[in-house]
Amino acid sequence: xxxxxxxxxxxxxxxxxxxxxxxxxxxxxxxxxxxxxxxxxxxxxxxxxxxxxxxxxxxxxxxxxxxxxxxxxxxxxxxxxxxxxxxxxxxxxxxxxxxxxxxxxxxxxxxxxxxxxxxxxxxxxxxxxxxxxxxxxxxxxxxxxxxxxxxxxxxxxxxxxxxxxxxxxxxxxxxxxxxxxxxxxxxxxxxxxxxxxxxxxxxxxxx
Amino acid sequence: xxxxxxxxxxxxxxxxxxxxxxxxxxxxxxxxxxxxxxxxxxxxxxxxxxxxxxxxxxxxxxxxxxxxxxxxxxxxxxxxxxxxxxxxxxxxxxxxxxxxxxxxxxxxxxxxxxxxxxxxxxxxxxxxxxxxxxxxxxxxxxxxxxxxxxxxxxxxxxxxxxxxxxxxxxxxxxxxxxxxxxxxxxxxxxxxxxxxxxxxxxxxxxxxxxxxxxxxxxxxxxxxxxxxxxxxxxxxxxxxxxxxxxxxxxxxxxxxxxxxxxxxxxxxxxxxxxxxxxxxxxxxxxxxxxxxxxxxxxxxxxxxxxxxxxxxxxxxxxxxxxxxxxxxxxxxxxxxxxxxxxxxxxxxxxxxxxxxxxxxxxxxxxxxxxxxxxxxxxxxxxxxxxxxxxxxxxxxxxxxxxxxxxxxxxxxxxxxxxxxxxxxxxxxxxxxxxxxxxxxxxxxxxxxxxxxxxxxxxxxxxxxxxxxxxxxxxxxxxxxxxxxxxxxxxxxxxxxxxxxxxxxxxxxxxxxxxxxxxxxxxxxxxxxxxxxxxxxxxxxxxxxxxxxxxxxxxxxxxxxxxxxxx
Lengths: 207, 566
Known about the structure:
Chain A is mostly helical. Chain A has helices at about 5-10, 45-65, 85-90, 95-125, 130-145, 150-160, 175-195, 195-200; strands spanning about 10-15, 20-25, 30, 70-75, 80, 170-175.
């Protein structure tokens, strides 16, 4: 089955705002002749933005893991926990289920996002034709699970708001959680700025 | 609506009819999105730089045990301010100690210098009190005390006990010398007028092993009371001494009874008030009395030779001269005299001539004027005058002996060698020994009495007496019984004869009456004869008529009346 013609093949471009169709131009910064909104076939600078945000997230992921995110003060002890040490402590304290949840939300999901986004970006940039459908599914997965990473941030926020018993016990947020929150937000933004249509460009046939 | 219209346009209109898009250039030449990773990178770099800048030196401290220390948690504190954290704990290669790696903070760089001391603060319960109670809850931490050196150092050996004195604390250290440690320990209090002003910081054996050196720290400003003449004494525990002086009990305070302590004070009388220098040396006296006593000066060794037993004479027994304690016994040994085949007791003693006070001054002047350096000439003279050593009983209860140097003019003369070293002082037997001798002579005399023969004689006499008594019992006793019966009978008849209603008694009564009557008639006769002697010749005259009694005169009654009138 031969490929159906796409707008690009026909040399036309549609406005995303007022749906005005105009001739495609090679020049950059083209705008809709009717409403003046920028015209673009794909999300503008999608790859650049995605890369930039992903790199920023990756950079912030280091301090987010190195710095403690939470301080638990009780009558007898004062504990500063990073994400990983918190997971280990939960495991040791006898709640492996919780440990697995936190580990998944705080470590597996962000790392997965970095890997998936990186893979998608590279494959798109290399105009790879391999497994477009799978890649599209991966992207959807990343979009769905992205905000679950905020779980850790919410745990810290809730605990530090609720556990305030002066001397007996107190939970305080530490700078690490800010970095972690920023990582989550940046990866989500990165995923948002990725244009999944890029996966389907350069294809030869509609299989 | 528009969509439909557009859709219609798209479907129907030829390509050339479509409008050209407008071109409007944005002013910025690059995508703003790159600011995000740049900012992220900047934040990351700033964090790294910050961390690198704030990272202080890394040091290694070795401890005997890592008890209570946790990697990543245990903090290092100075004056309760956190200056670092333990990062790792390693066992030494030879397993003798543990190495604790500590990351100090940037502003704690001065703690990575020579002389800094580290110790683990754990809850400690000692006799002197309880410390580190807060660590019961917070866990142990490592205490630090900076030295004053600038030389950097990264390997330290940690202290096992907290240092008694922190660096830079006002006050001064002093050194004490004692023969033994007693009940003192590091941290034992130092008292001045029963107020604690310092503590023992450290102690160690002297290099020659003949004594103990103690360092003590007196807190400022009280360290100014430690003057050059100050005396230190051991105020440890309960001082019970049972000597020739009797039972003595001495305590400083209840705390020292348990923990031990040192007290100091300036001696009475004129003294040097200049404060002592740092690390000045002092002698630690055993008790306050010894400490406060005037200085003893150089001791002199004397030797005495006693011919009798010295049971009860112990080393350290006092040596007294006319009741003044001038020294002490240092040795009691036996000797063998070949000529007499006896074992004399050799007593060595140290005497402090300066304890004689003014007498010593005068004697030493006298000796100096005669060119007698060690005063042996004077000693010789004194011995000629009867100076003798005797062992006397100081305490009858315990039988403790002491050596008394006294003048005994009756003592037999002895040869004295003034050049003998050590000086030998002749001895005489003590009072008690004399008493013993007398007693023994009495006992000798008693033992000479022939108790055996006396006993035998006595035994024979007693046997004879026994035979005699038997004879008496067998022969004389029945006769005696008879005689006694007869006597009883006689007594009974005598009794009846003498009873009130017996005829004898009545006869006697009658006889007595008769006798009375006769006596009366005789008196009448003699009366009559007295008045009428002639009747002896002429015979009795007939009786005259009795004369009438005259009535009472009225004049006499009148007189009585007048007399009673007024």
